[in-house]
Amino acid sequence: MTLQLCVAQLDFVVGDMAGNAQRIIDAAKSAYARGVRLVLTPELSLCGYAAEDLFLRPSFITACDHALNSIATALAGLKDLHVVVGHPSGSDERSRSVSVPRRYNLASVLCEGQVVARYAKRELPNYQVFDERRYFTPGDQPCVFEVLGVKVGLLVCEDAWFEQPARETRAAGAELLAVINASPFHIGKGGEREHTMAERVRDCGLPLVYAHLVGGQDEVVFEGRSFALQSDATLAGRAPSFQESSFDVMLQRGPQGLQLQAAIEPEGSEEGDLWHALVLGVRDYIGKNGFPGALIGLSGGIDSALVLAIAVDALGPDRVRTVMMPSPYTADISWIDAREMAERLKVRYDEISIVPEFEAFLNSLAEDFKGKPLDATEENIQARIRGTLLMALSNKFGSLVLTTGNKSEMATGYCTLYGDMAGGFAVIKDVAKTVAATTLMARASNPFPSASSPARPAPSCGRTRKTRTVCRPTRCSTPSSRATWKTTRAPPRLWPQAIGRKMWTR
Hints:
By secondary structure, the chain is of the alpha/beta class. 33% of the residues lie in helices and 25% in strands. It has two domains: 2-267, Nitrilase/N-carbamoyl-D-aminoacid amidohydrolase (4-Layer Sandwich), CATH 3.60.110.10; 272-487, 3-Layer(aba) Sandwich (Rossmann fold). The protein is built from 13 helices and 22 strands. Helix 1 (17-33) packs parallel to helix 2 (58-74), helix 6 crosses helix 7 (302-315) and helix 6 crosses helix 13.
């Protein structure tokens, strides 16, 4: 007996149920043509992870139910194909005086136009970024279904981190554990997952396939890296990290039970994983929210250089604009380094002097500041002028301001409210200063192998570029030489509240 399964490791968009459903349909049809008869999608793949309070809206759940039906209908003619889809479902239980939401985090098995099995997640995490007990009711039953003679037991993410759900699934007759997941990335998390799942395999004696999400959503990133383990807990296969993949696994029944065979992608370095996570986070936040590009205030320092390099890897140089805003206190080395950064990465670069604005502020405050020595007040005025100019450019042209403060600065308060904290996305706010420096040096000396861009591209945006001559720090760019942004394709129609809910800056 031979069974081929596929993990559809895809980057889904929160709220785009129609688009997500079509991606699942396309992946399933492509897999079926290769001989696959079992397709696994990640946790909550149909609506995107995580939709937060949208889960509590009946109309949102109804839209998910309709999208699930559309998948079943589209794949009804594919004989013996089983597709596991992660999605929310449920309704409100009402009495005369109270309404109680009953939502479930489900994995539904579709086959030939029907839902043939359904599993409700049992262990609901409520720590770190998770708040699932707010939205979902836990399930209490195992789920085992059969595909071409193989009995497959379903688990959803957190269930596999506990012994009882897997044990009960084996007791129900499972020969293979299929675990669908959406587990946020942090450094070392990939190895931690494989180690924990190996413990689960050793405990229950069943081979395991771990289907994981890839992509960025607000402040979290999912790195993919789906994998398969033999019944003795050895690694049978591993999918690529930080990119979409159709991860095929071949199952064969032998004297020792089911044997799994798949390609094994090598593990990345810590610096490489961190880099790809930051790049993916920027690419998806800007792409999924429909921004035409990124805007960065350069200082000539390490942090803005790191954010610039990340943005260029994420979006390409044509969608990144940089601005240097010198003041009377700006050292020559600052604007020289900023200019060289932009030239090396081939991005648009402007120098806009803030001297007139700075002097205007000091003149307005001259009476109040009379007799007072210069201190951090004047430095903060400079930072706030820069923040105002960047946000004005963002408002006018639609590009998103990427802030450049790192975790060390945020933790110690070494930053300026309404100044260098102004922006829409704090790329390295969870990266310590020392890590920022070593990561940038590693990237500069030995570029990491690039992960593929998501199959769902960002809205197609471009700008009319004009040749410009950079100016000295005391001059302003002339309006006639400024480039213009134009949107050539609208972003996908999403659930209205699904995007742009958060900013990384606190």
